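Q: I have two molecules that I believe assemble together. Could you output C-alpha cells for the complex as a whole instead of separate predictions?
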Amino acid sequence: MFDIAIIGAGVVGGMIARKLSGYDLSICLVERKNDVAMGATRANSAIVHAGFDAHSGSLKAKLNVRGSEMMEETAAQLGVKYRRNGSLVIGFNEEDRKELENLLDRGNQNGVKDLRILEKEELHALEPNLSENVECALYAPTGAIICPYELTIAAVGNAMDNGAVLERNFEVTDIKKEEEGYLLTSADGKEICARTVINAAGVYADKIAAMVGDQSFSVHPRRGEYILLDKEVGNLISHTVFRTPSKMGKGILVTPTVDGNLLTGPTSVDISDKEDTSTTQEGFAKVIKEAQENVSTIPFGKTITSFCGLRAVGSTGDFIINAPKKGFINVAGIESPGLSASPAIAEYVAELVKEQGISLVEKENYNPCREAMHHFREADMDEKNRIISKDKSYGKIVCRCEGITEGEILAALRTNPKAVDLDGVKRRTRAQMGRCQGGFCSPHIVEMIAKELNIPIEKVTKSGGNSYVNLGRTKGEVK
Amino acid sequence: MTELVIIGGGPAGMSAAVAAYESGVRDILILERDKKLGGILQQCIHNGFGLHKFGEELTGPEYAWKYEQKVRELEIPVKLNTMVLDITEDKVITATNEEEGIFQIQAKAIILAMGCRERSKGALNIPGSRPAGIYSAGTAQKYVNMMGYLPGKEVVILGSGDIGLIMARRMTLEGAKVHAVCELMPYSGGLIRNIEQCLNDFHIPLKLSHTVTQIHGKERLEGVTISQVDEKRRPIPGTEEYIPCDTLLLSVGLIPENELSKSAGVQMDRITGGAVVDQNRQTSVDGIFACGNVLHVHDLVDYVSEEAEIAGKSAAEYIFKKNTEKEAVRIPITTDGKIRYTVPEVITEKKDISVFFRVADVYRNVEICVYNDKNEKVFSRKKLKAAPGEMENIPLKAAAFENAQSLRFELEVK
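A: Yes, here they are, computed for all two components at once.
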C-alpha cells in the first residue's frame, strides 16, 4: 500500500512526484508507456510563458505566474537547462496593437513583471531578423525556454532518488475504492494500492476520473504540429516570437530551444483520437507559411525533423484541479501554460493532498538536487579530461552529430529514471537527435541497450511496446 | 607539430595518406572515428568496386583492405576510435579518444576526408506517424551486413540512390520482400548497372515519379501510402496506393559531412555541399585540402581514390613549399545550370587537369563544351546520354586555358 499513487508520468505527474517525495510518504508513479514524458509533455512548444495569456483570476493565470517565477530555481536544482530569453508577441497592424495593449493590461493584472510594448525601431534592433512588416510587439522579458522532457526526466529521477517508485507499462484500466484507499489495476492485470490517488493522466484524465464516478469534465486532444531546424540556424532569433492571438488561436511561434535548435509551430486542430500524433501535409504548409510571416528568412531546407503533440484540453476552459472524492485528486485539462505552471501545480496539489488528511512531514534526508544530464557536454576541456581520466568511456564519441559520448549514454541507461529504449536514450542524451537523426549511431546504441538490459538485440525497441528495431537475425550467424 | 593530419580513414583518407607518403611526406597522422580503417566500405559487402582502379571486381572490404595494407606497410600512424571535434583556421585540431582524452594537434597541412552522411527522414517531412521501422538505407545495411540482424521483412524503399538499390537486393537475398522502390524524380539517381543488377534481376518494381505521402502505424510501421507526383513533384490526388509493410528504407541523397570544414572557416559550395577547391583540392584555407565524398558525392570509390591521390600529392607540395615557385593564376569555372557544378571550380595552376561534374537532369545527344572568356570553344565531347546519377569527368590540357581569365562549362543538347 502506497500513500500516494500518481497516474501519469508527464511533467505534471513528475513535478508532483518530486514535490511529494520531499515528505515522508511512499509514492508510486504509474505510467502506461515505456518511459516518462510520453504524452503532451513529449511534444510542445517548450516555453515558460510569462503569464499574460490566461484570464485574470483563473487558476491558469495564478499558477502560470507562480510557476514561471519558480521555474528558474527548480531547473537549477534539477540540473535542467533553462534560458530566460524573453518573449515577443508581434503585431502587424493597428488591430494587433489594440490586442497587444489588452494583453499588456491583462499581464499587469496577472502580476507579470516588466511587460511593455516595443515600437518598430527598438523591436527590430532587439530582434533584427523579424519580418520587415512587423510593426510592434509586446515584450515580456520574463518569458523563458526549457526542455519539457528533460525537466520531466529530471523531476522523476529526483523523486526516485528520494524514494518514489516508477511503474512503467502500467495502463490503469480500473480503479476500485477500498476501505483504506484505492486499488489500481493495469491492462495486463497488475495491481497497486494507494491511500490517495492523483490523476495526472493528460488526455486520458477524464477516463481515469470516470473510473471513480467523476464525470464532471471531459478532455479532448488538440493536435499541434511542429518543425524543428538544425542548430546551424538556431541563432536566427533569440527571443520566442509569438503572433498576436486571434479568434483562430495563438498562431505559429518561432523560438530557439535550450539545445540551440530553432523550433516552429504549433498548428491547433481539435481531434477525437487520443493517440493520433501523426503529422499532416496541411500542418506543414501552415507552419511554414506563418513562421515565414514572422521571420521571413527561416531556411526550411535545414529541417531536421517534424513532429506532432497533443494538448490535453479540458472542457472547463481552466485547469481542473480538485478532489471530487476523498483521496482522489484530479489534475486535468493541463494544456498551455501547463509546463510553465508545473512547479506551482505541484505546490498546489500538495496542499490538496494535505486537505485529504494526509500529513506532510518533511523528509530529513530529502535532496532536491540532481546532477545535470548535460554536465559533461557543457564542461570545459579540463573538466572533460578529468572525467575521461576517471571513466574513459567519456572519451569515446558515439553520436557524432551531437558529440555524445559512450559515457553519457551509459549514464542515461543507469540513472533514474533509466532509459530502456532508443528514444529514451535520445531524450536523455540528445544522441540520435542531430542532423543524421541516428543514422550512424543508432545501431551502436541498440547494442549498448541490449548489453545493459541483458536482452537480445532483437528485443530492443525504439519506444517500447511493439516498436522493435530489428525483426530477427539474418540468414546466418555473424561473428 | 604534425606535418600532415588526415581526418578520416576511409578510402579517401587512406589513399591521400599513401599518395602523400609516396610524395615524400613522412610525418603523417590519420585520425579515424571507427575502430577500423575503411570507412563505409566495411559494410559494402557487395562487389563492383575497383574495376576502374585495379581492373578487377572487389567487394568494399577487399578494396579497403588493399589500401589498409599499404598504410600498414608504409607504417603511417593511425589513431582509431578517435573523433575530431574541431579544426581551426590555424590548423589546430581538437580530437578525443578513450586513451588520451581530449587533445590538440597543430598540423602544417590537413586533408579533410570525412565522407558523407545520408539525408534523414526528418528532412523530408513525410506526413504521418513516427513508428519504428524507418531507416536510412545505410543504417539498415549496417544492421544486416555488420551486425547480422534483419531490420524488417516487408520493405518499401524510397529513393533510388545507389545504397537504396544495393539494399533492395541485399534485403531480398536475406529473405525480405521488397515491394517497391519509389523515386520522386522521373529518373533514378543510381547507377544503371545497379538498377539492372539489384532491381530488374530480382523483379523489384522501380516506380519513377512516385513518393511516400503517408506513414502508417503506431509502434512499428504498418504501411505506407505512395502517390504519383506531377512534373513539379507534387503528389497527384487520386493516385494513392497503400502498401502494407513493416520497413521503409530511405535512400534520398547523401550530404557531405562538413561541420568540421565549416569550423575551420573553409568556404563551402552551395550545390555540392562540399568545399570550394582548386585543381589541387586545396580549399579556401591555405594548407587545408579536401577529397572524396566530403568534397562532392561520388558514384565510384575508384574516383574517390584518384581524387584523394591528387589531394595527397598536393598536400606534399604544400608542405615542401613547391607551389610557391609556380606562376599564380586564378581561373574560375562557371556552369550553365544543366551542368550543376564542377570540381575544381577554380584553376590556380597551369597544368593538365581533370574536371568532374554532374548534370541536373537526364539529357540525350549532348555535347559537353568548354568556353574561355573570349567565347572560344576550348574543349568539346559528344555523349549519347548524360544523367545526374553518373558523374562526368573530362581532361583539360593546360593549353586549353593558356590565356583564359575564366572558363565556362556548357551542356549543349541536340
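A: One point stands out. The CA atoms of residues 241 and 465 of chain A lie 37 Å apart.
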